[in-house]
Amino acid sequence: MIDPAAGIAVWLGVSMLVVADGRRAIAAGVALATLGMSVLTLVTAGPLAAAALAAGGGVAAARRFASGPAGWDILPSGSTPRLVLCIATAIVAFWIAAGLTEGPVASLRFAVMVAVALAAARALWTNDESVLLTAVAVLALAVASAAAIGPDQPSVWPYVAGGLVAAIVGWVPLRRASAA
After folding, report:
1. pLDDT digits 0-9 by tens, 88-120
2. CA distance 47 to 53
3. Backbone dihedral region of 69: left (phi > 0), alpha (psi from -120 to 50 degrees) or beta?
4. Distance in angstroms (rounded) separating the CA atoms of residues 142 and 28
5. Which SS3 state, helix, strand or coil, does residue 73 take?
6. Within 10 A of 148 (CB to CB), how many other CB atoms are there?
7. What angle is formed at CA 114 by the lines to CA 82 and CA 116, rounded to 5 degrees?
């Protein structure tokens, strides 16, 4: 019963990343998505892998909380297409995870599909560097947690790499292009 709840937590967290513009709301979304992915990883890959993802996501959420536009700013004007994207992505990912594939990790498949689709969409949709880096951090966590989907259990290294990317990417300095 904990797997579906963790999958829904990932969807809610990444949806918060997509529909919010304020740093507090985005940090809360990253924290919720990290919690869900860590729980799913704990169930499928063990405590070391889950700890690596939780640490990386925690650093990414803390970094996001410290940088970017202040406040919560959930569902600002013009965010209706983003809300529709979140709902449609959840429906399609649930249909694929539950109906078209077999195996015991349907919640993990759902969470990975939703997180990859929504984080990539947010990364392409934004003009704010801090939101872009946060979306890349969530994308790294989702790709790392996807390592447990296959029949063979990988070592802890994909999870450590995903956690490191998520923790480090928030500190990358971005430069704006100038025409001069």
Report:
1. 999 998 888 777 666 678 888 889 999 999 999
2. 10
3. beta
4. 17
5. coil
6. 21
7. 95
**Helices H, strands E: what count in the chain?**
7, 0
Q: Which residue's structure tokens are 């951090």?
A: 137
- CA atoms of 34 and 161, how far apart (whole Å): 15
Could you report the per-residue pLDDT of 3-49, keeping only the tens digit for each?
Answer: 888 989 999 999 999 999 899 999 999 999 999 999 999 988 899 99
- pTM, rounded to two decimals: 0.90
Token readout for 67 is 């940088």
Joined together, the tokens standing for residue 173 give 């300095």
Q: Tokens at residue 179, please?
A: 């025409």
Question: Are the beta carbons of 126 and 23 closer than 8 angstroms?
Answer: no
